[in-house]
Amino acid sequence: MRVLGRGGLGAVYEATHLISQRAEAVKVMLPERTGTPEMKERFRREIQLLASLNHPNIAGLHNAFYQEDQLIMVMELVEGEDLRTRSHHARIPLPMLMDFGMQVLSALEYAHSRGVVHRDIKPANIMVSGANLVKVLDFGIAISQDSVELTRAGSLIGSPLHMSPEQIRGEKATRHSDIYSLGVTLYELIAGRPPLNGDTTYALMMAHLNVTPTPLAELRPDVPARLSEIIARALEKEPAKRFATAAEFLEALRSQNMPDLAGTTTIIPPASWGSVTASKVSSQPITGPLSPPVDQLVRHLAKFIGPIAKIIVGRLAKQYTDLDRLYLEASKQIDKEVDRKTFLATRPPA
Question: What span, in angstroms and rounded, lies between the C-alpha atoms of 47 and 73?
């Protein structure tokens, strides 16, 4: 199996299911972690949390099982690059970066509505596929509203570079903490450097508590003043001064209405997931009416994944013109095999 990456809890490998032949990501606890009861419990909780989440911008859980005494997680394989890697190759254009940020916020609003706080939002945990679809990864230290805290009071958990002031103070993370961490992430990717620095971890933590970052508009003249203000609000020291919800943060970014790379305006149709109404943005908007066969494809796909089907099909139509290939690629957005087969059967005859 090919190693895809390593995190705080385990290593992730690419594997192929022998029966379905589907490529999947398999996460296994690192050997040095398996003997730690706390780490075992975190891994178990990650599985349970992911099992409760079903959103197009969150990497989905397929299965989990024990092999001897080893707990193994089988997940959706996301082909692409994380934002850390992508930003090292080249600066990400602002409209595209706002698209990515809004997709993350859609995922966070959904997770927060179910009482789940990620606690480790950072570029390395945000994967972008070839179709520019974002997937939030690594819920290894996430907590739910019903979780019993595993870390002792006053202990730190998370990435210091992107950690909120309240987490640094050892307080319980809330949805406002994820909003802060995403603010740090967006600032870093826009400016090309983090909003706060320190020669030591302690100095960095003190900066999060006491130092106000330089406004983005002062670092990059091409950054709109309003966008600079939005990011600054996400980085407020006091949680109550930040956006109240991820949806409010998303709406603020949406109000920028930034032109995309083709010179058109981003389209953000509503997308309902469970009891939550969120928003989803396309960096390659549908600028005209769809052809009848593709419009029919959208309607069929929407029965399984909701209104976001139009965005996904719009993106796929930019890459594939063959209707059979469009149906095949679109079917990959449907979790259940039986539903995928039902969807593919709706393909009209040539």
Answer: 7
